[in-house]
């Protein structure tokens, strides 16, 4: 089975300064999961052309797809389009369709030079139009360049999803138990060894003075995930506790 | 002025699958900001030794400090300590103090081999003890290895903060305005040019059908940030709108 891989590049000083918590990474991760595309890496860099170029070139040569968010607005700190052009070694200029869309959006005289910046697309790029903003994102090669504002990014992602291949999604089964991780760790390690096709993760939780762990079996082979989950449930029962299947959360 | 730099390495399949939104990156970013340390990059990788080693070596050689979260519990998928040892090319074994702390924590017979994994520290590492969990994190060289559970990570970060240098924190002044970014972009670009010591960012907002932007002036020179903020306010007033200083949010 060929599995497509992806990386995400989050661009923006405001993430690194702590001013803004990034939520786009999680959103893109969940969207890719539904398509069966493996998100392998996320990087966050600041509004620095050199940093964007270096990160983008590292990621686009290594993974099948790269998704960027941030830095495509009209202000001086929006430098993503230029950085992407530089990374690809291509020119950049007004994309005729983007220019026309934006020009039609603004009253006479208000389509100023800074707003025109939003029509700049690296040569060879295609637009990512969306329902939330007249300013488009763009795709060039295997790189999808999207807005940082979550509402706009999500609208762009809808269009991006139509351009991505559908693979086999990972089946994820979560079993929750009120036992300490240390109590179940050996049994879990044995089950991982017995079910190498399934990735088994353990995530401790603490709530209202109670504690336990969510045990997650993940595999593209749904039967393998189910078999591993049942083995986990049997192990828990044998320890005298009660396993509970829950939705991943 | 010498400014310390830092990177963060978030470790965990659950972040990349979208199951868990990462909140540790934002927390560490805000803590470092208070110390005046520049967080320059965040990377998220999965529970893969090769990926952790490669990312850690890239980051620790480039930045003054690296902070990792995730993968230090008792279960088989907790592989961070081993990966860190490999990245540094050192051995790994039970740290006597960590071992003693953990041994004292569990009733006789419950300090099993999997729990003992939490006492494994790369040779030369020092413990990061904390109030939330008896299992410590550790520091080796310029790398601080912390838990993924936010409550525990935050407790470890309290100890880590005592080991970091104090620099000059960035002064950040936020001016909010109900104008479209495209309307203020040229004035803002001119101000950025006139105040090169200050980084000026523009972050659009949408709320209840209204829209505008938060304009942020950031500098280690508080006077320079203030001067740039006043220039922004004057520009907004000249455009017939009302600038409003707000707390960064």
Outline:
By secondary structure, the first copy, chain A, is α/β, with parallel strands linked by helices. Chain A folds into two domains: 5-161, Molybdenum Cofactor Biosythetic Enzyme, Chain A; 171-246, Ribosomal protein S10 (Alpha-Beta Plaits). The first copy, chain A, has helices spanning 13-16, 24-35, 49-60, 80-88, 96-105, 113-116, 150-161, 181-194, 222-238; strands at residues 5-11, 38-45, 65-69, 92-94, 120-122, 126-128, 137-140, 143-146, 171-177, 199-207, 210-219, 244-246.
Question: How would you sum up this structure, described in words?
Answer:
The structure is a homodimer of 249-residue chains. Chain A is α/β, with parallel strands linked by helices. The first copy, chain A, folds into 2 domains: 5-161, 3-Layer(aba) Sandwich (Molybdenum Cofactor Biosythetic Enzyme, Chain A); 171-246, Alpha-Beta Plaits (2-Layer Sandwich). Chain A contains 9 helices and 12 strands. Chain A has helices at 13-16, 24-35, 49-60, 80-88, 96-105, 113-116, 150-161, 181-194, 222-238; strands at residues 5-11, 38-45, 65-69, 92-94, 120-122, 126-128, 137-140, 143-146, 171-177, 199-207, 210-219, 244-246. In chain A, the strands form 3 sheets. Chain A has a 6-stranded mixed β-sheet with strand order 2-1-3-8-7-6, sandwiched between helices. A 4-stranded antiparallel β-sheet of chain A has the order 10-11-9-12. A two-stranded antiparallel ribbon of chain A has the order 4-5. In chain A, strand 10 (199-207) and strand 11 (210-219) form a beta hairpin. In chain A, helix 2 runs parallel beside helix 7 and helix 3 packs across helix 4 (80-88). The radius of gyration of chain A is 22 Å and the shape is elongated. The two termini of chain A are 28 Å apart. The model of chain A has no long low-confidence stretch (mean pLDDT 96). Chains A and B meet through helix 1, helix 2, strand 2, helix 6 and helix 8 of A and helix 1, helix 2, strand 2, helix 6 and helix 8 of B. Strand 2 of chain A pairs antiparallel with strand 2 of chain B, so a sheet runs across the interface.
């Amino acid at each position: 089975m060929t599995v497509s891989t992806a990386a995400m590049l989050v661009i923006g000083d405001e993430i690194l300064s702590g001013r803004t918590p990034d939520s786009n990474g999680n959103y893109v991760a969940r969207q890719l999961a539904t398509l069966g595309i493996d998100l392998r890496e996320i990087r966050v860099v600041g509004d620095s052309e050199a940093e964007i170029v270096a990160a983008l070139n590292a990621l686009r040569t290594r993974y099948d797809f790269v998704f960027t968010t941030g830095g495509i607005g009209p202000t001086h700190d929006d430098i993503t389009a230029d950085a992407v052009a530089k990374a690809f070694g291509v020119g950049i200029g007004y994309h005729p369709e983007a220019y026309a869309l934006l020009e039609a959006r603004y009253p006479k005289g208000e389509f100023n030079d800074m707003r025109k910046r939003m029509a700049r697309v690296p040569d060879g790029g295609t637009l990512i139009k969306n329902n939330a903003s007249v300013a488009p994102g763009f795709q060039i090669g295997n790189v999808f360049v999207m807005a940082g504002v979550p509402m706009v990014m999500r609208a762009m992602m809808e269009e991006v999803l139509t351009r991505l291949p559908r693979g086999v999604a990972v089946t994820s089964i979560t079993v929750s138990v009120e036992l300490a991780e240390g109590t179940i760790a050996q049994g879990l390690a044995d089950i991982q060894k017995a079910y190498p096709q399934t990735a088994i993760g353990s995530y401790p939780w603490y709530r209202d003075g109670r504690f336990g762990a969510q045990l997650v079996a993940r595999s593209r082979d749904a039967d393998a995930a189910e078999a591993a989950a049942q083995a986990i449930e049997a192990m828990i029962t044998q320890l005298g506790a009660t396993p509970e299947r829950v939705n991943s959360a």
